[in-house]
Each structure stands twice: as C-alpha cells, then as structure tokens.
Write a structure and sequence with these properties.
This protein has helices at about 1-55, 60-80, 80-95, 100-105, 110-150, 250-255, 265-275, 280-290, 295-310, 320-345, 350-375; strands spanning about 160, 165-170, 175-180, 185, 190-200, 205-215, 220-230, 235-245. It has about 375 residues and is of the alpha+beta class. α3 packs parallel to α9 and α10 (about 320-345) runs antiparallel to α11.
C-alpha cells in the first residue's frame, strides 16, 4: 500500500515538473517573439529619427546604423517590462482558450502553482538584465553618448570625476584648458583646490595656474589667490585671474555621463565619488535602486497579465481584455516615471521612489489574483 502511494506521489511530482516546464516554454516562446518584434520596431524608429537629426551634418548611413545599434540594447531594456506583460497576456490567453489551464485547474492545481514557472522565468530575465545585459548596454550607450555629443550637440567640454577629484576640459580662443579641482559646491558653482593646465592648440603646454578657489560667473571663471607657472620662468603670484569660458552651471551638470551609461556594478563606487567631490548623486542612486527592483517589477507584470487573461472570456470580449491589460502596462509606465521624477526633485526619498511602482504593482496583482482564486 505504501509503495502504491509512493509511486502515485512520484507520478504526480513528475507530472507537475512536466507541466511547469511546458508552461515555462510557452511563456519563453512568446517572450522571445515579442522581444524581437519590439526591438525591430525600435530599430526602425531610431534609424528614422537619427537620419532626421543628422540630415544637416552630412553623416553617412554607416554612422547612423552604428549609433542605432549602440543604443539598441539600452532601449530594449527600457521596453522589457512591456515585453514581459505582453508575453504573459498572450501566453495565458492562448492556454486558456485551448482549455489547457481550465483542465489543469479542474485537476486541483492552484493558480499560484500555474504562475510559479512563469514568475521564475521573469525573475531570471530580471536578474540577467541587471547583472549581464545592463553592463553591456551601459558601455554601448556611453559610446553612443560620445558620438551624439560630437555629431549632434557639438559639445566641446567634458567632465569626469575620479578618486583624485574633478576634471573638466573646456575650449577657448587660444586652445584648450584642463581644470582640476579637489572638491566642488554646485549652488553656486565654486571649485576648491584648483589647478588649470592651459594649452595652445591641441597639445602644446602654455602655462599652469594654481588657485585656492574658482567661482563660475557669467562667461568667465574667477580664480582667487593664484600662482602662475610658465615654462622657462619662475612661478609668480598673480592675485585674481579671470578666464573666459562658455560653460554654465547647466552645461557642467549636463556634462556628467547619464546614470544609464554606468554599469550596475560600477554605480555604488561612482555614487561615492560624486558625493566626495560635492555633487548630488540622487540620479545615480535612483538608477541603482531602479535596477535592483527590476526582478520584482517583472514578477508584478506577470501577475498583472494573469489577472486579465486567466479567466475564460466570452467571445467578443477577448480584445477588450487584452486592451485593458496593455493600457494597464502603460499606466504602470507613466506612474513609474512620475514617481521617479518626484525622486529626482527630492520630493520623496530615493528608495521609495525606486521601489514603490514595483511594490504597488505586485500587491495589486496579488490582490486581484486572490479575488480570482476565491471566485
């Protein structure tokens, strides 16, 4: 008798594993299809957009395609929640229409057991996106930003932050200047522990200026307590020096690499560097926590898809149900960006701004599925 029960339990366990694998494969099939479909649409739209933006720059088609391909992995990550949602809607709807899920639930399988393999796939996709795809996409997006600054924005100035402080390069009438500062305050823009290296042309060193601090005023840097060093001459105290610049507070802040161009693994260290240099790291903290919340958001998208497509629908109402699911996805996207904007403006703390959309969607999906299961 015990052997029979054991054998029956083993057969049920084997069937459960087979069923889970089948549902997971069905979901993966639709996920891959939607991912390639949406990526193809993004590729075409981005190509047309860049052709329009570069039409007056005499850029070649090869450069346009290169820039599109460099940006494509990042844009694919941006639409990944929609891909998860659409794949879930289609997969569950087809399994419901073919009565496979109806028969499975009639056999005593709960809705949570049905969703477990799909949620597992979504979590794996989220972890893959954060740990592997994001570092790859951030490197390519950084190269895209460089090409965009060169060919579209004509941005001659660059800003970087390292463990040794702040480095800023600007072009002027006589050549170029490289400015180094130990720390900075951003409101107003004041640099401390300043060293300026001035070059004639591209690479011929002209002079070095050391200053206690440098204040950014309209179209000029004002350097205080300066000491000027020119090749072949002894250093001399120079008092206050005014150095022309086309930089503004906004241009300097915009010169930072966007958080999306920094790998998930490098963000914590870069945040520390920004804060040590005196800059705000809110954008980068939000990006870091947003990436951490990605697996949770993907799981929530699966649960929302299930609430719209698992219940058998009458003929003629299928399109309305699918449309409702898609509109819900757009609403989630809008709310996420709205909360993210509140976090950027410091209206709400960083952690709630990054985790609230995923958490609310997950709780909403669980509540709706509990109602569906009880019903």
């Amino acid at each position: 008798m015990s052997r029979a029960l054991t054998g029956s339990g083993m057969r049920r366990l084997r069937l459960s594993g087979t069923l889970s694998g089948y549902i997971a494969r069905q979901y993966c099939f639709w996920f891959v299809n939607f991912l390639f479909g949406l990526t193809g649409v993004i590729f075409l739209v981005s190509t047309v957009d860049l052709l329009d933006r570069l039409s007056s720059k005499s850029a070649s088609l090869g450069l346009v395609l290169k820039m599109v391909l460099l940006r494509l992995p990042h844009l694919s990550m941006e639409v990944m929640p929609f891909t998860i949602l659409l794949a879930g809607l289609t997969c569950f709807w087809r399994l419901t229409r073919s009565h496979e899920l109806v028969v499975t639930r009639a056999a005593g399988v709960s809705i949570w057991q049905l969703l477990a393999p799909v949620v597992g796939v979504a979590v794996c996709v989220g972890l893959f996106s954060v740990m592997l795809l994001n570092p790859f996409a951030s490197v390519l997006l950084g190269r895209f930003e460089q090409l965009e600054a060169r060919y579209i924005r004509n941005q001659p100035s660059t800003l970087s932050v390292s463990r040794n402080g702040l480095w800023l390069r600007q072009a002027d009438e006589d050549g170029q200047s490289v400015i180094h500062a130990q720390r900075v305050t951003t409101d107003p823009m004041v640099l401390y522990g300043v060293i300026v290296f001035r070059f004639a042309g591209q690479d011929r060193f002209r002079e070095r200026i050391d200053a206690n601090r440098a204040e950014l005023e309209l179209h000029e840097w004002v350097l205080f307590n300066t000491r000027r060093s020119v090749p072949g001459q002894p250093p001399q105290d120079a008092g206050v020096i005014r150095m022309a610049t086309d930089l503004t507070h906004e241009k300097i802040m915009d010169s930072f690499a966007p958080p999306e161009t920094i790998s998930f693994w490098s963000l914590p260290g870069f945040i520390k560097l920004l804060e040590n240099a005196g800059f705000s790291a809110v954008r980068h903290k939000l990006q870091f926590h947003r990436l951490l919340a990605l697996p949770l958001l993907f799981s929530a998208m699966v649960l929302l898809a299930a609430t719209f497509s698992l219940r058998p629908q009458r003929r003629g109402r299928v399109g309305l149900v699918i449309l409702s699911g898609v509109l819900t996805g757009f609403m989630v996207y809008f709310v996420s960006n709205f909360v993210f904007a509140l976090g950027l403006s410091a209206k709400i703390p960083v952690v709630p701004a990054a985790w609230t959309p995923a958490g609310v969607c997950l709780l909403l999906g669980v509540a709706m599925l509990l109602h569906l299961e009880d019903g």
